[in-house]
Design goal:
The chain is built from 15 helices and nine strands. With 376 residues, it is α/β, with parallel strands linked by helices. Helix 2 packs parallel to helix 3. The structure holds iron/sulfur cluster (SF4) (2 copies).
């Protein structure tokens, strides 16, 4: 289909520009978090886009209307050309957010990145207790380095977000996460119950909290939000398995976010490669604008035409867009069914039962994220 034909086939709601670009600069990472959202089949360094290719992609993204650039991975600071990429973002007018595990950062590197125009830093933490944090990341002394890096971020006057992926093996530290964010002078704390894709799905039984723990965490966050209003913004992401309605995954398929993998594949979401029957274009072969507007993968689940019942006639279909396609496929075997997180899905009760059973069982050992584990 030509780009023009594809455009004319779009509903007006889908024609808006993407707001955000998630640039997975690499899948290399020194940490091995068992809930990592990277695919099990990690991309190797040999296939990574060159500096020039990334600079061109950022120029194309700005032209397309993207506003925010999330520099992610893997660990984006392993790329020696990160300064060039940040400088290009500033030059073409993209707000740049560095999403980092921070264990490889030095104060000098951070100063250089700030001098090249970096706008924001997001640091992920595994726990507030150093021993447990390092155990979960499978990396010694990582927690101490993260705290040091967070201090540099604030000392350089950059805004700081802390990201706290929450699961059964750190949920008891939630109050301490909030205290720590306040102490470090973060502007934002993401209390993000783990979403079960990629490595997290592989480790689901080791990560799943109980419903009671989730409810208590919601109450704790609500109290902290009231207490810290105007000081700290706290985002709260609930686990789908205990929800009654799904989230509008990525704000709706092909509606606001573009994800580019280290090798240049353009995805509507980071887990989209788990779905069958999708053809992903690569920025090496096709302009980003054409891919956004007309590629088969972006068109497939955009809007509402693809929906089956109960979504097709549901009053919420343009609010949550049927939830997550990857979760629907992973649990039901059909990507065009309602997300099983929805209580209108015939799979909903079985979905919730899985969580109940796994949370009530003894946690198995983690399968840590690594190329070797992926190969196994
Ligand atoms: S979640 Fe952990 S392993 Fe995955 S990229 Fe982030 S820091 Fe690395
Ligand atoms: S039936 Fe579909 S559109 Fe309606 S709430 Fe459930 S997932 Fe959303």
């Amino acid at each position: 289909m030509s780009v023009e034909a594809a455009v004319s086939a779009q509903s007006a709601a889908c024609l808006k520009a993407p707001v955000g670009l998630l640039a997975e600069l690499t899948h290399r990472c020194p940490l091995q978090c068992p809930y990592c959202s990277n695919p099990l089949a990690l991309e190797g360094v040999a296939g990574e886009l060159s500096t020039e290719a990334w600079l061109d992609v950022l120029a194309q993204a700005a032209e397309l209307g993207v506003l925010q650039l999330h520099l992610s991975g893997g660990e984006p600071t392993v790329r020696r050309d990160l300064e060039d990429i940040v400088a290009q973002a500033a030059k073409v007018g993209l707000y740049s957010n560095l999403i980092t595990a921070a264990v490889l950062l030095t104060r000098e590197r951070l100063e250089r990145l700030a001098a090249h125009g970096l706008d924001h830093v997001q640091i992920s933490l595994q726990d507030t207790q150093a021993a447990n944090a390092d155990r979960i990341a499978h990396y010694q002394n990582g927690h101490a380095r993260k705290l040091e890096a967070a201090g540099w971020v604030r000392a350089l006057g950059l805004p700081l977000t802390l990201n706290a992926p929450i699961h059964r093996q750190n949920i008891s530290s939630l109050a301490q996460f909030i205290d720590l964010a306040e102490r470090l002078g973060a502007q934002r704390l993401e209390v993000a119950h783990v979403q079960y894709y990629g490595w997290a799905l592989r480790n689901r039984a080791a990560l799943m909290p109980t419903r009671e723990q989730v409810l208590r965490s919601a109450e704790l966050v609500a109290r902290a939000r009231a207490r810290l209003k105007g000081i700290l913004v706290i985002d709260f992401v609930v686990p789908d398995y205990y929800a009654r309605r799904p989230k509008p995954c990525m704000g709706g398929w092909g509606r606001g976010i573009i994800n580019i993998t280290p090798s240049g594949k353009v995805l509507p979401c980071h887990a989209a490669e788990t779905l069958p029957g999708l053809a992903f274009d690569n920025v090496r072969d096709r302009p980003l604008r054409d891919i956004w507007l007309g590629s088969q993968a972006f068109q497939k689940y955009r809007g509402t035409d693809w929906m089956r019942e109960p979504c097709r006639s549901c009053e919420f279909r343009e609010q949550d867009w049927g939830g997550c396609r990857c979760q629907a496929f992973a649990f039901t075997g059909a990507a065009d069914l309602a997300d099983p997180a929805c209580n209108k899905s015939s799979f909903h009760n079985a979905f919730a039962d899985v969580a109940r059973q796994e949370a009530a069982s003894e946690a198995p050992a983690f399968v840590f994220r690594s190329p070797r584990a992926a190969a196994r």
